[in-house]
Design a protein that fits this description.
alpha/beta; 21-stranded parallel β-sheet; 13-stranded parallel β-sheet; 15 helices; 51 strands; about 15% helix
């Protein structure tokens, strides 16, 4: 039974041949050189085992860099301290100037056999000729120093009279042969600057172990194949060597010195390395050190490029790999355009990052894999606050850290979704979309990507949006557009429409601010002649609430604050009634323009809106609220304030397209509790009105107030309420207050044989036409109505006062 299979009892001493054996010194024991030598070896072995436990790498210093002209092939290596894989501590006490070519007149100091595994090391060379990649290392060397007096009686001692064994160090240069380079896809025979840059970068990542390590990350449990350093370790690179730099030499001299491709901080081996090598790519301190080295290698290579090369630098031309994170100068002579540099890897835009968050973001990014330039992986670019640098980091598929979030897809009604990214992808694949607009975004491009019929929730973040053309939402399903009130402002200076909704199933617009700065003439492609800062066309269901809209004046009616229009007969063709609700909006309207215009809607509800003129003190808007077209089942205009208008509220429904015998096109019109202030400007001397209603079956005009500012101009005809047209069985006008109009109420019903209703029967009235409790201050008369209608009792007039 051998030692590997023989059972050992507990508390049994276990020792091997390599165990430290300290000499047992006692009085009278004879001491020999062998005894003292064993004590020295014991000290060295103890130090080596401690060094192996701490880990291999560079503690500080030992930076290698080109010194002087490239043709001199001379390096400077700074003083420093390192630990090799054998556990030995290597110290370079002072900066050294090292030549990489043979010096025929140089004398080498005497060397002797070293300690333990680091005896006489082979493989070191000097540069001879041609292109090649070399590895510069620091290794131990034992030197003989001085002589010691010996006893003449012992002739053998005379031959071993060295006074001291000096634990020195040496710099070695190991050639990486072409076969080894080819196995890792490298060719050192390049001369063009971009090709040399790609070689340097590719060689560094071959030393890092990529792409093999990335494959092991994608397939956990896979053992990565040898990196370039691992492969060299099977040849000339001993456990006693500490790699310092990768050097490219050519016939013209040093091409580059790349330190961080092979230089590592001290890292301890994982406890799982020996027992589970398949997991070494996923755990342990060494992978963190490699991530840091990738960043530092990139920054060093970038820093050594000339400012002229930096200006047009692209990753695709000069790099084979990109690190998981890196910094780029955002200003100064070495400023680098991140879009040009990243190319296909660039994000849509940069995002700000507080300086205090840089360390956390960088630490998370460095634990991700680097990216081949040929891959389609994107990066995120941060503009560091109060800094002249950008930070780019690899964008994880579920960034940031969403892959760590567990999601119950079944509970969320998203079967098959187990992480946040899958859930988002599944939601985006549905017919309803959530879309956010922000200042600086390409608004038109974002909307153009939507498929016809898609339901849309459009959020307009706070900010000012300068538009060169209207923002158009068209041919979608149910649309919601909401903003942050006055903080979300769409402005257009090249037309009268800032936001236009065309041919959607429904639209809701809330808490948005819109401004149109210039009026145009003629109809647009929808056939609308008058367009609003907010325009909705051929959309059967419309709700507008909390909108601020403004438009500039032009001296003629060309624009409006809000326009909702449907083609004539559209609702009948679609088989669905159209409806419009406009509530709690604030409109600032330019000279001779319109506040709210609704055309061809079955149901129009206009409530609690504030409409005023945006012009000079002596200017006025043309009309406050207009409901027009050829059809309307019900119109309700309530609790609105219209000021500085030539005409206040108009409900004028045309009957030109009605066939003979059809019912009246407006079933019910209610205008109540509105406040209208009229101003008649120069040249506006034709008849004006505060409220006008024509052609309706049922009319209720109640508790409105109409004020005329231009009382000093009696030559201008101004009516408080004007009812001219065809009316049905009920017209009620009561409790209204007029101050300034020359006539309070004008009622002029017309006969019309083209509608199915009985003609006026003066002998037996068949309708209720009531005018009561209306007050017209400063007016010539409170009610103007055909006398025969009052005499026949068709019109009932009670308590209408004109003081």
């Amino acid at each position: 039974m051998n030692a590997a299979t023989r059972a050992v009892s507990l508390n049994t001493p276990i020792a091997d041949t390599a165990a430290i054996r300290a000499g047992n010194f006692f009085q009278g024991r004879r001491l020999t050189s062998k005894d003292l030598g064993r004590e020295q070896d014991n000290r060295r072995w103890a130090d080596a085992w401690l060094g192996q436990a701490v880990g291999a790498g560079i503690a500080w210093g030992l930076q290698a860099s080109q010194q002087g002209a490239a043709a001199a092939r001379t390096l400077q290596v700074k003083a420093g301290l390192a630990v090799n894989r054998a556990g030995q501590t290597l110290r370079l006490a002072a900066d050294q100037l090292v030549t990489l070519v043979a010096q025929p007149d140089a004398a080498s100091p005497g060397a002797s056999t070293g300690f333990g595994p680091c005896g006489v090391l082979s493989g070191s060379t000097t540069y001879v000729k041609g292109n090649g990649l070399y590895l510069l290392t620091l290794a131990p060397l034992m030197m003989d120093e001085g002589t010691a007096p010996v006893l003449a009686l012992d002739p053998g001692s005379v031959r071993c009279n060295t006074d001291a064994k000096v634990e020195a160090v040496q710099l070695r240069l190991l050639v990486i042969d072409d076969a080894l380079l080819a196995a890792h896809g490298l060719d050192s025979n390049v001369v063009a600057p971009a090709a040399v840059s790609r070689l340097r970068n590719a060689a560094a990542y071959a030393c890092f172990g990529f792409p093999s390590v990335a494959d092991a990350h994608r397939h956990p449990g896979t053992v990565p194949t040898d990196s370039l350093i691992d492969a060299l370790a099977r040849r000339d690179l001993s456990p006693c060597d500490v790699p310092l730099a990768l050097i490219h030499l050519s016939g013209s001299g040093i091409v580059f010195v790349d330190r961080w491709s092979v230089r590592r901080r001290i890292t301890a081996n994982s406890a799982a390395d020996g027992a589970a090598p398949a997991w070494s790519a996923l755990i342990g301190d060494e992978m963190d050190a490699v991530g840091e080295a990738q960043l530092l290698q990139f920054q060093e290579q970038l820093a050594e490029m000339s400012a002229a090369d930096i200006g047009a630098l692209t990753a695709a031309a000069s790099f084979a790999w990109l690190p998981p994170a890196g910094f780029l100068d955002a200003s100064g002579a070495r400023q680098l355009n991140w879009r040009t540099f990243l190319g296909a890897h660039q994000p849509e835009r940069e995002v700000p990052l507080a300086a205090g968050d840089v360390r956390a973001v960088l630490a998370a990014a460095l634990r991700r894999d680097p990216v081949p330039v040929s891959a389609a992986t994107r990066y995120r670019v941060y503009r560091i606050t109060a800094s002249a640098q950008w930070l780019f980091v690899r964008e994880a598929p579920n960034s940031p850290h969403a892959e760590e979030v567990w999601l119950d897809g079944t509970r969320a009604a998203l079967d098959g979704a187990s992480n946040v990214q899958q859930a988002i992808d599944m939601l985006r694949a549905r017919s309803c979309r959530q879309l956010v607009l922000w200042p600086g975004a390409d608004l038109h491009a974002l909307l153009a990507k939507l498929e016809p019929g898609t339901d849309l929730s459009l959020c307009v973040e706070a900010g000012e949006y300068q538009l060169k053309m209207p923002l158009v939402v068209q041919r979608l399903g149910h649309v919601t557009v909401h903003g942050a009130g006055a903080g979300s402002r769409l402005l257009i200076d090249s037309g009268e429409c800032a936001l236009r909704v065309n041919e959607c199933k429904s639209v809701t617009v809330t808490n948005l601010s819109l401004h149109a700065d210039r009026m145009s003439s003629g109809k647009d492609e929808t056939g609308i002649g008058v367009r609003g800062a907010l325009t909705v066309f051929n959309t059967p269901s419309v709700r507008i609430e909390g909108v601020r809209a403004s438009c500039s004046g032009s001296g003629r009616i060309a624009g409006a604050g809000i326009v909702v229009s449907n083609p004539a007969g559209a609702s009948a063709k679609a088989g669905l009634p159209s409806s419009v609700q406009i509530t709690s909006c604030e409109l600032s309207i330019g000279r001779a323009q319109v506040g709210i215009l609704c055309i061809n809607t079955d149901l129009a509800v206009i409530r609690q809106n504030l409409i005023s003129c945006a012009g000079q003190r002596d200017e006025s808007l043309q009309r406050g609220i207009v409901v027009a077209g050829v059809t309307a089942s019900e119109v309700r205009i309530e609790d609105n304030v219209v000021s500085q208008a030539t005409e206040g509220i108009s409900v004028g429904l045309s009957r030109r397209e009605a066939a003979k015998g059809e019912a009246l096109l407006a079933d019910r019109v209610i205008v109540s509790r509105n406040s209208v202030t009229l101003r008649v400007t120069d040249g506006e001397e034709r008849n004006r009105h505060g409220i006008f209603i024509g052609n309706a079956n049922s009319v209720l005009v109640q508790a409105n107030r109409v004020l005329t500012e231009d009382r000093q101009r009696p030559e201008v005809e101004v009516d408080g309420v004007s009812l001219i047209g065809v009316y049905g069985r009920q017209v009620i006008v009561r409790d209204n207050h007029f101050e300034g109009p020359r006539t309070g109420i004008v009622f002029a019903p017309r006969e019309d044989d083209s509608v199915r209703r009985p003609r006026l029967n003066l002998e037996q009235p068949d309708r209720v036409w009531l005018f009561a409790f209306n007050v017209a201050e400063l007016a010539a008369e409170a009610l103007q109505c055909p006398a025969e209608l009052i005499a026949a009792g068709v019109v009932v007039a009670e308590h209408n006062i004109a003081p």
